[in-house]
Design goal:
heterodimer, A: about 250 residues, alpha/beta, globular, B: about 290 residues, mainly alpha, 10 helices, 2 strands, about 5% strand
Amino acid sequence: MQQPIVSVKDIHKSFGAVEVLKGISFDVANGEVICIIGPSGSGKSTILRCINGLLPIDRGSIRVANFQVEKLTADRDIIALRKEVSIVFQQYNLYPHKSALANIMMAPVHVLKEDPREVEARAIALLAKVRLQDKAESYPGELSGGQQQRVAIARALAMRPEIILFDEVTAALDPETVGDVLLTIRELAEEGMTCILVTHEMGFAREVADRMYFTDGGVIVERGAPAEFFSNPRHERTKAFLSKIL
Amino acid sequence: MSLRPLPVGTDLPVLLPPATALAKRAAQERLLGNPIATLDPRHAALLFAAFVCAAAYAQAQAPVSQPPIIDTIWKWTPLLGTGFAFNIAISALAMAIGTAFGTLLGLAQVSRKNAVRKVAWFVTNFFRNAPWLVLLFYCMFLLPFKVTIFGVSVPLPDWVKATFGLSLPVMANMSEIVRGAVQSIPSGQWESAASFAFTRRQTLWMIILPQCIKRMLPPWMNLYSILTVGTVLVSVVGVSEVMTLTGDVLASENRADLLMPFYFYILAWFFLYCYPIARWTVHLERRYAVNF
């Protein structure tokens, strides 16, 4: 087997006295789509934030591509890591004072110091990819939740990452626009982008995931291929969770 | 941003009209995130009426041998005008200095370095809570009348010292406006900027502060209105602005009946200058309240 692009080994993370992650380990191969599900507060979002170094870990190790995440300190290295790993947030977090196009262009131009004309061409292509080519000059406040989230995905793609982390990206959307966002994610998955999704969309997870993880209480309770995971879960906790949610 | 409307009204019939009005006002202020400016055209009408009454009353009391009051006021208007222009100049300069240093101080208040944050907090609160007049006196008496930089003597006239004195409380209030605005930006903006590897400086200047300007504009203009009215304080330390000149004029005319009309006249000028600013502030508040 080829070397995994993300390798998480026994990570621990506490917020004050609360230990949120109590030894999480998993590998993600290049081009793989993994879905992490679990009850609220089980540390799913924290795992994502640790992977791209937004949150420092207390113990364990995280390797992403050639970076040992917990050891990065220099700005240059962190920029290099963030170029590999983009994250899309539940609340989109677009910059409200910039147009959709400017939102996408900002990080490549100002962080990666790329040529603005080149970045603009790429940003326009990305907007077309998320089917928002006519919204380039719109401001986030003028877009629906689903449109904002697709701009956020385009913004993440503009960094040309190897891996994208999706943090409950459809949780804040109204049901009508969820479909458009999921379609965009599925297209990415089919193109071979490595994706780590935290989601509550079970039907979607079953369809796109190569591997499922169920977390509860800061540990991974169960893992497996989606067909097996959904139809024949082994652990009682997983069964209870799935029976409630499906 | 979704806002639940406050329940309007009360079960206590006695309290009904004021309670309803207060609840309505509170709901509006919640939407604005700021107190509503209370100046409206009725105040202008009232002020004008007071001026006319004072002038008419004084005229009725005046001995026949004296020239009419309106003529006296008109005669001194050019002089008072230069004084008023001086007030505006002092207010603009103090505002510029206060805004520049206040912004830096405000950013220091949200610094990641604990020591910087604490010092900035102390400076802000010291100058914000000191009476303006006390700060003015300190500047008048503690600053030298000239400073020598690289062998060049720069004189510091009284009005410059007074301007520094006024810019201190402006700086402190500006610092709080900046701190409040920066902290009111949702944490998701910081997190998203960090996930794209923007440095802290880039995040502040390119992402956070541009969003703050909209929020800072109304309280900043409010502060300017207060400062403009506050410039008459410098008359106490002998700068020849409009209040000082009015006092001089009254002394030279030596007529007690002129007192009321003259002060109402000056009041009207300040109203005419500050009122459009206040209205514009309200307009901006409304405009930007719905945007976020």
